[in-house]
Design brief:
The structure holds 3 protein chains of 3 kinds.
Chain A: E1 4-13, E2 16-26, E3 31-35, H1 42-49, E4 57-62, E5 65-66, H2 72-78, E6 80-82, H3 95-103, H4 111-116, H5 119-138, H6 154-167, E7 172-176, H7 184-199, E8 203-207, H8 211-217, E9 220-225, E10 228-233, H9 235-240, H10 242-249
Parallel strand pairs in A: 3-8, 3-9, 6-7, 7-8
Antiparallel strand pairs in A: 1-2, 1-4, 4-5, 9-10
Helix pairs in contact in A: 3-5, 3-6, 5-6
Chain B: H1 2-33, H2 35-52, H3 59-84, H4 93-107, H5 119-141, H6 146-166, H7 168-171, E1 177-178, H8 190-213, H9 237-258, H10 261-278, H11 283-309, E2 311-312, H12 319-332, H13 337-355, H14 359-363, H15 365-379, H16 388-395
Chain C: H1 2-5, H2 24-52, H3 59-78, H4 86-117, H5 122-144, E1 149-150, E2 159-163, E3 166-169, H6 170-192, H7 194-204, H8 206-211, H9 216-242, E4 244-245, H10 251-264, H11 269-290, H12 295-309
Antiparallel strand pairs in C: 1-4, 2-3
Helix pairs in contact in C: 2-6, 2-9, 2-10, 2-11, 3-4, 3-9, 3-10, 4-5, 4-9, 6-7, 6-9, 7-9, 10-11, 10-12, 11-12
Classes of the chains: A alpha/beta, B mainly alpha, C mainly alpha.
Chain lengths: 259, 422, 324
């Protein structure tokens, strides 16, 4: 059974059809890419899956459990985490604190517990710090743990965002254009990071515009345009698909530009 | 004499600001590094000094101290709602009124005076009632966006006041409820004896110390030294100490909360509610908790207030009070516990200071207060004792604060479901 | 009877309470007149919010300032007479509007612009607004005292026509029509003039508007000015209709007007109109049904219900102050 299964997903905003009959399945351990021209509906897809929007129609199941109608924090608890196209860190909190917020999803301390501080609470707080540092180390910026998020460089902020998402112990990690604004070296390092995250057992769904990144790490790619799926398959195959070329470059275009 | 004292307070505030400018960073760094002992020391030191303060005050000043206590507690509670969780509550006075009226109705000679409970019995009841009110108000409305929440809470504040005016059968309307019991502790209670004993010793010690330091100056004495400390009657000191005790407890509780996952959740909600929700923070739950804590704190303050003044009527619970408490929180330093207490003190003391002005200006006291607010916001929006985390948010500056014209999310007001295109 | 003759029982619906049937026209008229005043004030709130996301708490004092200016003008023109011809009233509207505009612009210049320069947070603005409100009220209190001052009667109440048993007076009509004219004028201005387009641009996207050459400072000043003109005019209308003014007349209408702006959809000019009138009517009908002491409670309860069912208000929020 696929880890995430989406069937007939449709989403409307007033008269505008954002998504129409989109099907998607991701197997556990895959890295799947979601690509398409600007405005195709990719982020809307993420928003539907993570519970921000309630789809007009369709089924969304994570390991068999339906996600439709659940609030975002419930979806996160069930095991889907995401990053954002325009980085949305908690600007005035430190990198470590940002990650700790993610870790808190798995903590069981109640509000009363937070006041009383029984041993379990204290253990969780210690774990929050230790594991927080571990996660930041994982993404390569442990020495920035005490830095306020807004003061970090763009690339480092992206890393914090990924660490924060990983902190929620997701089964599925949805990355929304993680390579945006990065130079080639950073992109390369990002790609290794994503691969290693997958190797740790996290399934990855990736929205990305940079074709090198997509070709480099995605095993399967799905293309959507105007809210509809127009192609799906291994990256090289999709790259050559005439419908995909047409969607990106317009009718009558020659070979895929690639990269 | 009072003028001098008032000016001294203002001078103190001014000096503290100047001191902070010059040494602030170094002191806070030192404090943070030695946090383990620095906090308990300053905490215990401050509150011990506060507890002993009445020794030096005359009765009028002690009354003022009680008012300071009432408003400091209110400020503390609203700080949790506005400062930590970032929820704009313009009707906070409602919870104070609920606490006060619960005390009055269950204890005083209102139409429902079957109960005649003592203040001590009413306290937990009032706390529950206020908490319940907070949850009932918050439940449906905390989903609303910041500015809408502001209006709704404002409305709630007005509704409570209007209810108090018009539900004559319960609240006696504008006539108010009188003869509210003052919180006496029954005699012969062993705990009482212990406290009286201890208090007598402490007071004697300080009188001796006082005479050693300032021999010859008359000591502001009271009829029965020691005994008065806990007799809740005309003497304001017991109320002051009770408020101090509640404040101490609440400060510790709130600090604990803020240093835990709850505090992180509040900060995350404040920063970016949408992202917080996406990271698994159950935003509604934590907002409700902030509301509940704020409401119960105000309720407690209301109970003690009612027991002290022994009379309540709807006029004391108008919108201007909500504004005053909000001003106290911001003036003291939004999101800062010490700041909230300082703000409560300042807001109570400024009108006192202004009392020494010619009569003409006294009527316009609130106008001068308003002018001070404007100046503070222009020149020192982070307040008297800024919360470290929030100082940067509130002062603004290039990449930092999201003001009204950046199109970004404001750092301190939680907006609603946020940017749908993210 | 029914059974015997084969006809089914007809249930008789309970009789409609008076407040919703016979009294309704009276309540409607009353509601539309107070609603007109709310609408005029609400406009200032909604414009400023649309452009700055700021609740201009001190706007209630803009309204009060206009009312005071009207009084002073009338006193001067009539030499403190008790009454005067209607022409004086119309004359007094101008200084009232100007005074309102002046106070609003001064507010922007001295209380808000310094904050804007520093990128202050919204709560900071709010506190400053509250401070300004207190300050302005107390200045007037010091100056004029706290005894209500009477407007010389300029428009003697004369019934114009009747709806059923309810008489509609000239005062009601003048108020309503004046409000409509002002609103219409504003709407046209925002839609058609360059400045108006600038306002809408800044409300939608200040950064881009700035880059497109819109002078943001100027736009903001004009926004305040427009809201102030209308609220000032509303103040004079208030004085004419209710016959008196005082330093604190802005307080409750201000809260109600902001509520009305939110009800209609904050940032939306037509929303201010719809919200103001709706609120006036709901208030009046409700107070007729349940007693006038519950008027404000009804108002807020309705507000909460509307916001829960339709969080963006009746007409939806205006993205850009005047686009809707």
């Amino acid at each position: 059974m696929p880890l995430l299964e989406v069937r007939d997903l449709s989403m409307r905003f007033g008269g505008l059809v954002a998504l129409e009959d989109v099907d998607l399945a991701i197997e556990s351990g895959q890295i799947k890419g979601l690509i398409g021209p600007n405005g195709a509906g990719k982020t809307t897809f993420f928003n539907c899956v993570t519970g921000v929007f309630r789809p007009a129609r369709g089924a969304i199941e994570l390991a068999g459990k339906s996600l439709v109608g659940r609030k975002p924090h419930q979806v996160t608890k069930l095991g889907i985490a995401r990053t954002f196209q325009n980085i949305r860190l908690f600007a005035n909190m430190t990198a470590l604190e940002n990650v700790q917020v993610g870790l808190d999803v798995r903590h069981r301390t109640s509000v009363v517990g937070a006041i009383v501080r029984p041993p379990r609470t204290r253990a969780e707080e210690t774990e929050a710090t230790v594991r927080g540092h571990e996660l930041l180390a994982r993404v390569g910026i442990e020495k920035l743990a005490g830095h306020v998020a807004k003061n970090l460089s763009y690339g480092d902020q992206r890393r914090v965002e990924i660490a924060r998402a990983l902190a929620t112990r997701p089964k599925l990690l949805c990355l929304d254009e993680p390579a945006a604004g990065m130079n080639p070296a950073e992109k390369s390092s990002l790609m290794s990071l994503i691969r290693s995250i997958r190797d740790d057992g996290v399934t990855i769904l990736l929205i990305e515009h940079d074709m090198k990144v997509v070709m480099g790490i995605c095993e399967v790619v799905m293309v959507i345009d105007f809210g509809r799926t127009i192609a799906e398959g291994p990256p090289e195959q999709v790259q050559r698909d005439p419908r995909v070329i047409e969607a990106y470059l317009g009718a009558g275009a020659a070979d895929a530009a690639g990269g | 004499m009072k003028l001098v004292a008032s000016l001294a307070v203002l001078a103190l505030a001014g000096i503290s600001i100047l001191f902070q400018r010059r040494y602030g960073a170094r002191v806070t760094a030192y404090y943070d590094r030695n946090h383990r002992w620095a906090f308990p020391l300053s905490f215990v030191g401050f509150f011990t000094a506060a507890a002993l303060l009445p020794v030096w005050l005359d009765v009028a000043q002690e009354e003022l101290a009680v008012s300071v206590g009432v408003f400091a507690l209110l400020s503390l509670g609203l700080n949790v709602v506005v400062g930590f969780a970032g929820l704009l509550d313009l009707g906070y006075v409602a919870f104070w009124a609920i606490g006060a009226y619960t005390m009055a109705i269950l204890g005083g000679t209102g139409p429902l005076h079957f109960a005649h409970l003592s203040m001590w019995q009413i306290m937990p009841i009032a706390l529950m009632v206020a908490l319940l009110a907070g949850v009932l108000l918050g439940g449906p409305t905390l989903r609303l966006r910041g500015d809408y929440l502001a209006i709704v809470t404002l409305g709630f504040g007005e509704i409570i006041r209007i209810l108090a005016e018009n539900l004559e059968s319960v609240t006696r309307g504008a006539k108010g409820i009188t003869n509210i019991p003052s919180g006496e502790i029954p005699n012969g209670n062993p705990l009482v004896n212990v406290i009286v004993h201890a208090a007598t010793h402490v007071e004697n010690f300080w009188i001796r110390l006082y005479n050693a330091i300032a021999p010859g100056t008359p000591h502001p004495t009271r009829p029965v030294p020691g005994q008065d400390v806990i007799v809740f009657g005309v003497n304001p000191v017991p109320y002051y100490l009770l408020l101090l005790f509640v404040i101490v407890t609440m400060v510790l509780v709130i600090r604990r909360l803020n240093d835990s996952r709850v505090g992180r959740a509040w900060a995350a909600i404040r920063e970016d509610e949408f992202a917080a929700e996406a990271m698994g923070v159950p935003t509604l739950k934590y907002k409700l908790w902030a509301f509940a804590i704020g409401a119960s704190t105000a309720g407690l303050s209301g109970v003690v207030y009612a027991a002290r003044v022994q009379f309540v009527n709807p006029e004391s619970f108008g919108f201007i009070i909500s504004i005053t408490i909000l001003a106290a929180v911001v003036l003291g330093g939004l999101g800062s516990i010490a700041g909230a207490l300082a703000g409560g003190a300042v807001v109570t003391l400024i009108p006192e200071v202004l009392r020494s002005l010619p009569q003409r200006f006294q009527d316009a006291r609130y106008g001068i207060f308003g002018g001070i607010l404007i100046l503070m916001m222009i020149f020192r929006p982070q307040g008297l004792i800024p919360s470290r985390r929030r100082a940067a948010e509130l002062k603004g500056g290039a990449a930092e604060t999201k003001g009204p014209l950046d199109g970004g999310l404001p750092a301190d007001l939680a907006t609603g479901a946020g940017d749908a295109t993210a | 009877m029914g059974a015997a003759s084969g006809r089914p029982h007809t249930l008789r619906s309970p009789p409609m309470p008076d407040c919703l049937s016979s009294e309704l026209p009276l309540r409607l008229v009353g509601g539309l007149t107070t609603g007109s005043i709310y609408a005029l004030i609400a406009l200032g709130y909604t414009l400023v919010y649309g452009v700055l996301q700021l609740i201009n708490f001190a706007h209630s004092e803009v309204f009060m300032g206009g009312s005071l200016a009207g009084l002073l003008t009338l006193n001067a023109l009539t030499h403190h007479g008790q009454s005067a011809g209607a022409i004086y009233f119309y004359l007094a509207i101008i200084p009232g509007m100007l005074a309102g505009g002046l106070v609003a612009v001064a507010l922007e210049r001295f209380a808000y612009r310094p904050l804007r320069r520093r990128g202050a947070s919204r709560l900071t603005y709010l506190i400053s607004a509250i401070g300004a409100s207190l300050l302005l009220q107390n200045i007037v209190l010091l100056w004029r005292g706290n005894v209500p001052e009477n407007y010389p009667t300029t428009i003697t109440a004369v019934p114009v026509f009747s709806i059923g048993t309810v008489q509609v007076f000239n005062r009601d009509l003048i108020l309503f029509v004046a409000m409509l004219l002002m609103m219409f004028g504003l709407d046209r201005f925002v839609r058609w003039s360059r400045t108006g387009k600038g306002i809408r641009a800044v409300a939608q996207d200040p950064e881009t508007a700035g880059m497109m050459g819109v002078n943001i400072d100027r736009v903001i000043v004009i926004t305040f000015l427009l809201g102030g003109l209308l609220a000032g005019g509303g103040g004079v209308l208030y004085g004419m209709y209710f016959g008196r003014t005082r330093f604190d007349i802005g307080f409750i209408p201000g809260i109600k007007a902001f509520t009305a702006a939110v009800l209609g959809g904050i940032g939306n000019i037509r929303g201010a109109l719809v919200g103001g009138l709706s609120l006036g009517v709901i208030e009046n009908v409700g107070s007729g049904c349940l007693g006038s002491q519950w008027k404000d409670v009804i108002t807020f309860v309705v507000l909460v219900l509307v916001l829960m069912v339709r969080p963006t208000g009746l007409l939806g929020e205006g993205v850009g102050g005047g686009t809707k």
